[in-house]
Amino acid sequence: MPLIVLALLSVFAGYFGIFEFLAPALPGPVAHAAEAHHGTAATVIMIVATLMGLSGIAAAHYVYVKSPGLPDRLAQQWQQLYRLSLNKWFVDEAYDRTIVRPTFALADRLWQRVDVAVIDGAVNGVARGIAWWGWLMRLFQSGQTQHYALGMTLGAVLILGVYLLWL
Predict the structure, then answer these.
(1) What distance in Å separates the CA atoms of residue 79 and residue 73, rounded to the nearest whole number?
(2) What is the number of domains present in the chain?
(3) Quick check: is 79 in a domain?
(4) In a domain? residue 102
(5) Domain extent at residue 66
(6) DSSP state, 146?
(7) Distance between CA 140 and CA 82 in Å, rounded?
(8) Nearest to 10 by CA among 55, 61, 53
(9) So what's the pLDDT on residue 140?
């Protein structure tokens, strides 16, 4: 029942110009839709769509309420068409073969070649570089103050020597 009420309200909103009603409150796209809504082409489209919907409702009422044995008789009479319809015209299978499987295959190749080789390789390379730098610095870091003082003294002598040689 709620869907019926919503359907009727949407039909009436379309026919009685909800766009014109909303145009002052929502300028922009709604105002342009209100301008496009005027005209016989839009009215014809609304009438045809409404008639198609009503004819579908009437056909469903006839087939399933008035003559409930008709679907079984039609399925027996048109077996191949019924089987195609039952299998949704094999659209899902075609979509699976043409879109889903190639997409999964591409994603798998991208995962192996880009994610594993490039991204993981870069991250692991940075980690290896930091580990190597830590190992190298460990050779110079003893934790004893006299070694650090000796290193600073030798560095100062080296800098002073280079400065005096170039003057």
Answers:
(1) 10
(2) 1
(3) yes
(4) no
(5) 2-88
(6) H
(7) 82
(8) 53
(9) 80
